[in-house]
Amino acid sequence: MSEEISNDTLLDLHRRMVRIRRFEETAGKMMEDGKIPGALHLYVGEEAVASGVMAHLSNDDQITSTHRGHGHLIAKGGEFDRMFAELFGRETGYCKGKGGSMHISNMELGMLGANGIVGGGPPIAMGAGFSNKFRKTNNVACCFFGDGASNEGSFHEAANMAALYKLPVVFVCENNGYGEYTPQANHQAIVDVADRAPGYGMPGVIVDGMDVIAVYEAAGEAIARARAGEGPTLLECKTYRYYDHVGVRGMGLNYRTDEEVEEWQKKDPIDQFEARLAEQGILSAGDAGKVHDETLAEIEAAIKFAEDSPYPDPSAITEDVYA
Ligand SMILES: Cc1ncc(C[n+]2csc(CCOP(=O)(O)OP(=O)(O)O)c2C)c(N)n1
Ligand SMILES: [Mg+2]
């Protein structure tokens, strides 16, 4: 573990991951119990990626997210009550209950939107990066996308333009080895998405996406490079989703083995990190437990807030359609 990372930062990284894990576990259960409508694509297993990147960003730095976007918003500072309200379709949600899981956004936090369109984020992040550069704001746009999305033309066009104009963008590929039910080897002829970066004239960096410190350090370099006007980086984080593509149990398709899931779970980002923090005397198991308990209490209150909130009035259906 790097010496220059302060204890405050380490604890902050831990809390961000726990907040994502507990939110997602609860949301998944509520979806499976039929208490949340629609499809949720959950981020359990991938927490180190959003947490390690977001720890470097302010509210004025932008992110673009994906269909698997709850973790990105939580790590960016999203509040549980407004998030649950959005998932429940209530007026107090981030998008007044009209966006839902896959279209949740919040401009104050620089969260430019989850996106139901695979590959929808890269052009938006490239545009935000262009705006940052043009307005000389020193802000960075981080674009989260999957291994599957890295095959979309929109990613390639955005990567080309971002590198050409040396835009302050970081392309964060969350390579979880699958696009829906298709293993990576059946959807692209490469093993490392980072190999695509030199073709556009930007560095490609591979990092263990189950290790929050590794992500934090690599993201720190890429973001510093972007802020210094040196252009984009493609940061590939090798990670894994524990749940199915949608929901927890999903459709029960036989596209991966239990053994494979268990192998990845042995590298659990939170368990690994808690063991390291305890070993270094930074966070005891008891104090880590308190972070989980506080998070669960906050989730319980947020669910109550969401359940007590009204549905939007039907007359509001055409409001906020254009910005
Ligand atoms: C343009 C487009 N094509 C197809 C889909 C259907 N779809 C939803 S998620 C997904 C897989 C995305 O895989 P990846 O980018 O690796 O993200 P992951 O789900 O693994 O996080 C697909 C094909 C879609 N939503 N949008
Ligand atoms: Mg994937």
Quick overview:
The protein is α/β, with parallel strands linked by helices and 323 residues long. The chain is built from ten helices and seven strands. It has one domain: Thiamin diphosphate (ThDP)-binding fold, Pyr/PP domains (Rossmann fold).
Q: How many domains comprise the coordinates?
A: 1
- The overall average pLDDT, rounded, is 97
* Spatial order of strands in the largest sheet: 1-2-3-7-6
- Class inferred from helices and paired strands: alpha/beta
Strand content: 5-15%
Main sheet? 5 strands, parallel
Number of strand elements: 7
The unreliable regions are none
Distinct ligand kinds = thiamine diphosphate, magnesium ion
What is the H/E string? HHEHHHEHEEEEHEHHH
- Please write the CATH class name: Alpha Beta
CATH superfamily label: Thiamin diphosphate (ThDP)-binding fold, Pyr/PP domains
With helices defined by DSSP (H or I, 4 residues minimum), what is the helix count? Answer: 10
Shape, per Cα inertia axes:
globular
Q: What percent of the residues sit in helical stretches (DSSP H or I)?
A: 40-55%
Which architecture would the CATH scheme give at its second level?
3-Layer(aba) Sandwich
If you consult CATH, what is the topology? Rossmann fold
Report Rg: 19 Å
Distance between the termini: 44 Å
